[in-house]
Amino acid sequence: MSEIKNLNPECIWRNFYALTQVPRPSGHLEQVQRFLLDFAKQNGVEAFVDDAQNIVMRKPATPGMENRKGIIMQAHMDMVPQKSPDSDHNFETDPLQPYIDGEWVKAKNTTLGADNGIGVAAIMAVMEAKDLKHGPIEGLITADEETGMFGANDLAKGILQGDILLNLDSETWGNLVIGSAGGIDLDASRTYKEVPADQNHAALHVIIKGLKGGHSGLEINEGRANANKLMARVLLKLVETCNAELSSWHGGNMRNAIPFKAETVVVLPKEKVADAKVLINELREMFEAEYKFIENQVELTAEDIPTPKMQLDKTDREMILRAIYGLHNGVMRMIPAIPTVVETSSNLAIIDIEEGKVAIKVLPRSSSETMKECICKTLLGPLALAGFEVKFSGSYQGWDPNTDSEILNLLKCLYKEMFGEEVVVKVDHAGLECSIILNKYPHLDVISMGPTIRSPHTTNERCLVETVAPFWELLKRTMEEAPVK
Q: Of 130, 258, 315, 412, which one has the greatest count of Cβ atoms within 10 A?
């Protein structure tokens, strides 16, 4: 694992490896904050934690560069804590186990945290560099981006001093991102009547797993299976054909990750168990046929378990299941002016049903404020009709592209000069913190870039080694060629 520290460029990979040894799941950032403050102190860099729990670092201009515009490098310190079903990894206490797999760096049985640890490592590399020419530079390392962009949302005005914002959270090398989608958190809840389960009936533990999952913004257009949506189809069939009743449901664990696993407990007459297992096998074959060009596999199993004490009342079960079945999931519309980019989508991320309570979490996204309102009301419809209390929170607007950006034009020229080809300028469906920071600092000239990372928010997250060195070279040249104020 430690050989990762010796990859090129050593300054980024060494710092990234150090980050992988510090637990930093969203919501548990005390250790990584101490790590970053200690790093800054060791390198003589000014650093502090602001009221929003962001880390801010500052480094003065090198001699002769004082007249350059200040550059703010921005990344987020938290990571999505996903692990394989058989992993006992504790994200709050255990270091990651990164390793080199051919062209890629991955982590054993967990997310890698290159989203956005590579960006943080790049900021660290700039801050510790002694031979880099640059104007005034700042590092803004935000807190809890993955769970609601809380660090960016709570960033106070007046803290940042620079003129240019380089967001280092994009995930395809050779692309410069100049716009991104907005989003909002949907939380739906309701109670239900519990009734005793017939103890003369049988029970099955129904599990869907083995799906790819993925980033609910960047990969929502790939049509990957959503474990919660598949489970709704399974349950409705079991209810209709086997007189099954629902006892519990747990699916998904991160709002911004496509759920790759869901599990339920159903109660049914003993004489229906054989039919239910045949049906489960038929549904598995059907799902495999539907997703054979998208998913590696669809595992759908039913195991005999002791009959639980309680189950949902039939009326509540019907309303809840129909509402979940009817919830929109996936792409709603592409951007009319850029038909290759998703404009509006939703991810049915988390469902928890147990002990008389239902909790559903959905992440709607859109680069259009009017279509964001549309997708929210589309989701609200079935939930409200089924008696859910629905709350929307954490709304953030999309980042509107600025094609006349000075930093964009500089980077386009530098990229062509350094690599002999035109850089791709694009808009992403992923949510970036740029729009939130721009709302507080409207004078900033903003762009996003990064090396190639694939399958973020999954245990197959990986970073393409060969893209990190050119990313570093472009970042250094950008510092050296920063425009004059």
A: 258
* Type of residue at 60: P
434 shares a domain with 469: yes
The reply to whether 384 and 404 lie within a common domain is no
Q: Which spans in 158-301 are helix H?
A: 227-242, 273-290
Considering the entire predicted model, what is its pTM? 0.84
116 prior amide bond cis, ω within 30: yes
Q: Are residues 362 and 449 in the same domain?
A: no
Torsion sign, CA atoms 211, 217, 220, 222: negative
| Ramachandran region, residue 196 (left: φ > 0; alpha: ψ -120 to 50; beta: rest) | beta
pLDDT digits (tens, 9 = 90+) for 191-244: 999 999 999 999 999 999 999 999 999 899 999 999 999 999 999 999 999 999
CA-wise closest residue to 349 among 328, 333, 332: 328
Q: Does residue 145 carry a catalytic annotation?
A: yes
Per-residue pLDDT reduced to its tens digit, 329-374? 999 999 998 899 999 999 999 999 999 999 999 999 999 999 999 9
Among 78, 138, 146, 219, the one annotated catalytic: 78
288 is catalytic: no
Contact partners, residue 33, CB within 8 Å, separation at least 6: 49, 53, 55, 77
Catalytic residue among 115, 128, 144, 145: 145
Instruction: Measure the CA dihedral 419/424/430/433, to 10°.
Output: 70
